Amino acid sequence: MTKFTVNNQPVEYRVDPATPLLFALRDASNLTGTKYGCGTGHCGACIVDVDGAAKKACQVPIGSIEGSFVTTIEGLSHDRSHPIQAAFLAENVSQCGFCIPGMVMAASVLLRNNPRPSEDQIRTGITNICRCGIYPRLVEAIQRAGRIQRGEDTVASPRPGVDPSDAARVVPALTPAP
């Protein structure tokens, strides 16, 4: 059994210690925000914060992180209010959205270690692959998140879109006209 903390909750996994963290999070903890992309550590869709470092969860056996602290996208904030999440929304970074959780987690670690990253530092530090090509907006969003964290910028309303409270709304079934 492997024990560590996930999103500030102690967890004991009763799976093989060689199990990749990605599958422990997704399958055993039902934390599906961490995405399975390539499974080889190249794409970055599965990045989580392990003890303050951006780690590709598909490459980390849970036995190697006994006693660690892991933060997933679900643990960053419950209402998307973290400066990085707010900046990603305000800068309209997401397209398909599949890579975004890994990018948000990588960016949160980057900004914690470097609150004023240059464009080159962002491009070097965020190596995630995005098939939609959001890289120019990504750089601006990370710089804006840094300004928000430093109190130099405010979070503007995101561009028009679906209100989160409407996204999961149940729509009554249509009944045929008489």
TrEMBL record:
<dbReference type="InterPro" id="IPR036010">
    <property type="entry name" value="2Fe-2S_ferredoxin-like_sf"/>
</dbReference>
<protein>
    <submittedName>
        <fullName>(2Fe-2S)-binding protein</fullName>
    </submittedName>
</protein>
<keyword id="KW-0411">Iron-sulfur</keyword>
<keyword id="KW-0408">Iron</keyword>
<dbReference type="InterPro" id="IPR012675">
    <property type="entry name" value="Beta-grasp_dom_sf"/>
</dbReference>
<keyword id="KW-0560">Oxidoreductase</keyword>
<dbReference type="Pfam" id="PF00111">
    <property type="entry name" value="Fer2"/>
</dbReference>
<dbReference type="InterPro" id="IPR036884">
    <property type="entry name" value="2Fe-2S-bd_dom_sf"/>
</dbReference>
<dbReference type="InterPro" id="IPR006058">
    <property type="entry name" value="2Fe2S_fd_BS"/>
</dbReference>
<keyword id="KW-0479">Metal-binding</keyword>
<feature type="region of interest" description="Disordered">
    <location>
        <begin position="150"/>
        <end position="178"/>
    </location>
</feature>
<dbReference type="InterPro" id="IPR002888">
    <property type="entry name" value="2Fe-2S-bd"/>
</dbReference>
<feature type="domain" description="2Fe-2S ferredoxin-type">
    <location>
        <begin position="1"/>
        <end position="76"/>
    </location>
</feature>
<dbReference type="GO" id="GO:0051537">
    <property type="term" value="F:2 iron, 2 sulfur cluster binding"/>
</dbReference>
<dbReference type="InterPro" id="IPR051452">
    <property type="entry name" value="Diverse_Oxidoreductases"/>
</dbReference>
<keyword id="KW-0001">2Fe-2S</keyword>
<dbReference type="Pfam" id="PF01799">
    <property type="entry name" value="Fer2_2"/>
</dbReference>
<dbReference type="GO" id="GO:0016491">
    <property type="term" value="F:oxidoreductase activity"/>
</dbReference>
<dbReference type="InterPro" id="IPR001041">
    <property type="entry name" value="2Fe-2S_ferredoxin-type"/>
</dbReference>
<dbReference type="GO" id="GO:0046872">
    <property type="term" value="F:metal ion binding"/>
</dbReference>
